[in-house]
Amino acid sequence: MLANYRGPVSLKDPSHANGKPVVTYLSRQEANHRKLNPDTHEELIMALKALEQEGLAEVNVEEFADADDKDDQVAKLSRTTILVGVHGNGLTNLIWMTPDTYGRSAVYEIQQPGMFTDDYAILSKALGIEHWIIGGRDENLEYCQRSTCGIYGTSEGIDPGHWSFTLRVPELVKRVRNHLMSLP
Question: What is the top-level taxon of the source organism (predicted)?
């Protein structure tokens, strides 16, 4: 995707950028809707930063706004091995990820409970990037991939995107940690 892009990017295998994989958490906390509640957001940042303290990855927390320099956004995502973010337009930036040579780049997309949409999973699949959806319609299915998430859409009584929500941060970070530890 980036071969003909003229801006500042890293086309190196992101699994080995500075000797460590790069985990980017793309926040939506400044958005008017569809975001984590403040406590969950802070817990997620602290848990991801613990991965950095353990030496498993470089961890970056980003929140892109329309006014932000697009070349800067592309440069940051081109170094990303694992992208974590709440469902929203910002996840379109996953197209700038450079899949690692082992096919182990991944996106962990957080969706509000009662909602399942696969917009960004389709992009990931086209790029050869593993894509996990956290949340979704089935209360018994907390993590799924596009083919296993069940029925597309929104459950009755759910107002998509007009509230903040929580997630089980330790479970998400455990999955990211396991993914990082599987990297060569």
Answer: Eukaryota
